[in-house]
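INFO  loader      accepted 1 record
INFO  loader      residues=153
INFO  predictor   begin
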Amino acid sequence: MPLFRQPKIIVLGASGVRANHTGTTSKTTVASIIVPGGMMGLHGRIRVSALWTNNNSVGSKTVHIDFGGTSWLGSANTTQTTQNQMIVIANRGLANSQVGFGGLSGSFGTSGAAPGTSAIDTTVDQTVTLAVTLASGADNAAIENYLVELIRP
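INFO  predictor   done
INFO  writer      dumping tokens
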């Protein structure tokens, strides 16, 4: 009998097709993926990986990863033209209590902030949203690829 059980990883959404945004300064969704209600269970997690690019200018280009309407990442770039982000959001033994990295501007490393928490009801369908906000409509930002996975222990 094995000492551990292999987790089940389900790909909920993936794309390598570039989705560019330019022209408006409002937060604009470039991809959205449904997490079916009840699939996370009490100890499941969502892992979102995304590769972003933007033009080199002084204007801020902010990329966002939201889950269930809650912002889990909001990372701004100006002259750095590429960023690779990954976040993990886990249910905490309840279907309506989550925890994740507390640094909204980055996905790994250290942070002086407490872990991020939310009270999203994962027994019903929720959406992972990848979005962009531009400081100037003349700027541009794009998602180059993304992967959204559901991990069940």
